[in-house]
Amino acid sequence: MNAAPSNRHDVRLENVTKQFGGWTAVDDISLTVKGGEFFSLLGPSGCGKSTTLSMIGGFESPSVGAIYLGGEDVSRQPSYKRDVNTVFQSYALFPHLDIFENVAFGLRRKGLPKAEIETRVRDMLALVDLTSFIKRKPGQLSGGQAQRVALARALVNKPKLLLLDEPLGALDLKLRKQMQIELKRIQSEIGITFLFVTHDQEEAMAMSDRLAVMSKGRIEQVGTPAEVYDHPCTEFVASFLGASNLIPGQVVDRGGETMVVKLEDGAVVKLPAIALAASNSADVKIGVRPEKFLVLAAGESEEPGWNVIEAVAGVSVYLGVSRQYMMESKTGRPLSVYAQNSGRAGELAPGETVRLAWNPAHTFAVAASQIQPAEGE
């Protein structure tokens, strides 16, 4: 493996397992995070993501396997010898010190010259937009401001890798969204590797260059947010990362670049053959995201080549940009449909029969052998 640039760490896990007594928290995972990447570990509580972060930071040691930072095996290296800093959900600021001294704490422990400390602290507070709060105490800050101080304190030491363990979990929704933008901006400006742990799907999607979805101590899928959302490999990933409509069916034709599936209600649909390239299973579930459906008005035709199924409209919820309908297929299977608020049609009445159309390219599939119940839902 090539060495990472001097200002950033790449991270490599090789067949890492972590056991606590008879319980396996992390189960034989291998993963590579590129230097300078914003990478997220995403999954429900108890899936092993925070334990994985703790092993990378040196707070826990792997039971089996190896961890490399910047090409160096650090599996048995203590945390203080790793060029890594961690930001936790709790902030852990010193209440008796002002903001300047909280950020300067690590630099003073290293014995840096006073002038360098002054410059680096002020530069870092400017980066997180807190210059005017320099003499305030932590108790005088909002949750978002305190989180930015914790971030500045971690970054002022110029680590090559920053670990963030659910750092936005204590903030309200508006502050979380603001901090998502701030974290991405700061990471882009300083260019170091960020490894972020969260159970919040939207948070991971908004900030990550790539992400890994974890379940029961294992990695289900790794990819960009678009790859994992549009082409989930398992039912767990499809269900955990956003809403999905999953409909059982059987593959009746695998010829060429297109696969044909007969659904449980008798409808025949097409999808890219690559959607199930890794499996020869005939029993599948095809998946369509709620926003991919187009609700066809009476007498309206679908686009040439599009898939179509019949459904019965149920209750709906007005969301502003769209209206969410709970519908049922001909076999009574629940379907979620988002109808864009474009003004082209009025609200559907409960019990009204409709046709749902979608582009075959927007269809994914999982093999029956891969299907597992989603946890933490």
Offer a concise description of the structure:
This protein has 377 residues and is an alpha+beta fold.
Q: Write the CATH fold name of the largest domain.
A: Rossmann fold
Structural class: alpha+beta
- Strand residues, percent: 25-35%
Q: Number of domains in the coordinates?
A: 2
The overall average pLDDT, rounded, is: 88
For this entry, give a set of tags:
single chain; 377 residues; alpha+beta; Rossmann fold; OB fold (Dihydrolipoamide Acetyltransferase, E2P); 2 domains; 6-stranded mixed beta sheet; 5-stranded antiparallel beta sheet; 8 helices; 20 strands; disordered N terminus; disordered C terminus
Explain how this protein is built.
The chain is of the alpha+beta class and 377 residues long. It folds into two domains: 11-230, P-loop containing nucleotide triphosphate hydrolases (Rossmann fold, 3-Layer(aba) Sandwich), CATH 3.40.50.300; 235-370, OB fold (Dihydrolipoamide Acetyltransferase, E2P), CATH 2.40.50. The chain is built from eight helices and 20 strands. It has helices spanning 49-57, 99-109, 114-127, 143-155, 173-190, 201-207, 225-230, 235-240, and strands at residues 11-20, 23-33, 38-42, 64-69, 72-73, 84-88, 161-165, 193-198, 210-215, 218-223, 245-253, 258-263, 268-272, 283-288, 294-296, 307-318, 322-329, 334-340, 353-358, 364-367. The model is unreliable at 1-6 and 373-377 (pLDDT under 50).
